[in-house]
Amino acid sequence: MASIIVGIDPHRKVFTASVLDERGRHLDHQHFANSRRGHEDALAWAQSIGSIDKVGIEGASGLGRPFAEFLVERGVDVRDVPPHKTAQHQRGRHEGKTDRLDAHRIAVETQINDRLAHAFKSSTVAAPDSISDQIALWHNARISLRKIRVRLIGELDALIHDLPEPLRARLPERVTARARITAMAKLGRVRSTDPVQQLRLTLIRHRIGMLKDVLDQDRAAAKELAKLVTASGSTLPSIPGIAARSAAEILLEVGDPRRFTEAGFARFNGTAPIPVSSGEAGGRPRRYRLSRGGNRRLNAAIHRAATTQLRCEPRARELYETALSRGHTRREAMRILKRHLSNTIHRTMLRDANKPLLLT
After folding, report:
1. Per-residue pLDDT tens digits for 11-63
2. Which of 182, 210, 231 is the endpoint of a domain?
3. 3-class DSSP string for 270-285
4. Which pTM was predicted?
5. Do 244 and 322 have their domain in common?
6. Of the residues 183, 255, 299, 337, which has the fewest C-beta atoms closer than 10 A?
7. Residue-number span of the structural domain to which 333 is assigned
8. Measured between alpha carbons, how far is 5 from 18 in angstroms, rounded to an integer?
9. CA separation, residue 152 to residues 140, 149, 186, 216 (Å)
């Protein structure tokens, strides 16, 4: 029986499957319910057409997760297809957008891209990891809490700014919004005979209470993340500039580091700069420009770590100054440091992944 490639475009209640043969020719497509019965029907339908080589699912950790787990349990090679990959095909061909076309593009990307990650960012066919799932939940909770915190601080800053001058005079001037909010909270219950000002004071009091609750939840989430990072066996927090929060984000975005080479990891996180040199004779330094590709969340975590290392890590400062002395600009020197840090992170994660499990 000939081998086939299956592309899956998942939605909440249904998903569309498209099948390609070894030469990339479209064989068939079908719609199924995104339920256990639909998963069984889809697998039986695909197996009736040919021997399944790979199944590509757009968002295997999102809407396509139930089907991905179902297939992985049965030993099927499932690949996670990023949504932007199919969007590139769509813009290039100007074919429009339907579920059938999307499923076909997912199948094409699965067939031609050997670097697609396995489902759940593993280097092999593997089920989701419990610790990684918990890290993801707490990390997403912190992202939501951060958005709420920023919005509350903005609302409180505007409310405090509109208070009467005599009351604002009791607060510190030319300081951060957080400092003014803290000072306002220390004033205690303040009353006014003006109903508008009294309502404003009431809203400020309520918003301060909400902000305290959000900050308490954020601290609790940070503690849980630190525990989970330790439980995962990761030693990323031992790298200067990488706290438990950043380590959790790196673990989530990278998954299994064994699916990358050192250079491949740099391309994945956007720290592999793009060469733009011209007239390189005469000992002039080769020029590189910033890579806009790669995982920007991971790139941001590496940038924060590099910035911290420049302040407190002598080896990082020496590397940075050496790059400057060789004729590189400050931006280029920072990119060199980030690439060095990318290599360090990759090697650290590889050591952690290859450590034997200690059974207790």
Report:
1. 999 999 999 999 999 999 999 999 999 999 999 999 999 999 999 999 888 89
2. 231
3. CCCCEECCCCCHHHCC
4. 0.78
5. yes
6. 183
7. 236-354
8. 8
9. 19, 5, 18, 14
